[in-house]
Amino acid sequence: MAQRIQLDEKGLTVSDVILALQKEHVELPAGRLEAPGREINVRVLGEAIDLDTLQHIVIKEMGGAPIYLSDVAMVEDGFEDIRRIARINGVQAQGLAIRKQRGANAVAVAKAAKTALAEYKKTLPEGMIAEIVSDSTAFIKDSVNEIEFEILLSVILTALVCWMFLDRFRAR
Q1: What is d(CA 89, CA 74) in angstroms, rounded to the nearest whole number?
Q2: How many whole angstroms separate alpha carbon 80 and alpha carbon 131?
Q3: Which residue, among 44, 41, 45, 33, has the nearest Cα to 3 in the 3D structure?
């Protein structure tokens, strides 16, 4: 919020900051600029070497004096704000979701992912584990098994009815 006030005091906008970053070819991880009621994602590629270089990017010149990024923004070398947390049984974890593409066989994708995970587990350092926490294809497999059972049961019951009423297992 303080950065927004600093931008307003200097007569700058978030777009001015983004354009200056893009013009100076600064490399930033995917980040965001926050303003009241909105959030703008920033993805800029380039060659910034250190934090000092980032701080001294000129956003605009006013009255012959440069306005640096550090004058209107908090520039720090650190991690992005935590936006999501994954926990398994109360222990912090990393999460990864695998989703099939449209038209792909979900069960085949899950089987391939499980095979790849089994190979990946062999390369993990001691004490590190990788597990499947949720597998939505179990429902699909159960449904297919239930359908197969229902079809088999229908064939048996149809044969039984034919035998009871026609005195043979199949109709003529």
Answers
A1: 36
A2: 26
A3: 33
CA nearest neighbour of 59 among 17, 6, 9, 14:
17
Q: For residue 47, what are its two tokens?
A: 């060659």
Q: Of the ranges 27-31, 87-91, 114-118, which is most confident?
A: 114-118
C-beta of residue 62 within 8 angstroms of C-beta of residue 11? yes
Q: Which of 26-32's residues contact partners 24+ apart within 8 Å by CB, and which partners?
A: 26/53, 26/54, 26/57, 28/54, 29/80, 31/80
Mean pLDDT of 8-20: 81
Tokens (6 digits) for 137? 């294809």
Going by pLDDT thresholds of 50, 70 and 90, the confidence category of residue 49 is low
Exposure class string for 97-111: b at 16+ Cβ within 10 A, else e: eeebeeeeeeeeebe
- Asked whether 109 and 98 are in contact (CB, 8 A), the reply is yes
The whole-angstrom distance between residue 108's C-alpha and the CA centroid of its chain comes to: 21
Instruction: Please name every residue paired with 62 in a beta bridge, in sequence order, or none if there are none.
Output: 65
